[in-house]
Design goal:
This protein is mainly alpha-helical. It has three helices and no strands.
């Protein structure tokens, strides 16, 4: 599980020490904490992992899917290279 700091932020330090604020920080609102949690889960890729493990995938189906993904990545790479050289030749 990703670690998220949901503690309140420390008060800002003023250059003027005479006007230093000694109030206690407010606790974080629930909706902001929930939004931070969701972003952290998305960045960590936890939901994708859970969805992938939701159902059993036979080894041959997994191998076939991985191969198709690799072919798609290679075609995308080739397409990008072809467009780059086409643009250079056109001018």
């Amino acid at each position: 599980m990703p670690s998220i700091d949901l503690s309140p932020r420390p008060p800002r330090q003023n250059k003027n020490k005479k006007n230093q604020d000694n109030r206690q920080p407010k606790p974080m609102p629930f909706d902001i904490a929930l939004r931070k949690f969701r972003k952290a889960v998305d960045r960590a890729g936890i939901l994708q992992d859970i969805r992938a493990k939701e159902f059993y995938e036979k080894p041959t189906a997994k191998k076939k899917r991985k191969k198709a993904e690799a072919v798609a990545r290679w075609r995308k790479f080739e397409r990008q290279n072809q467009l780059g050289t086409f643009r250079k030749n056109r001018r």
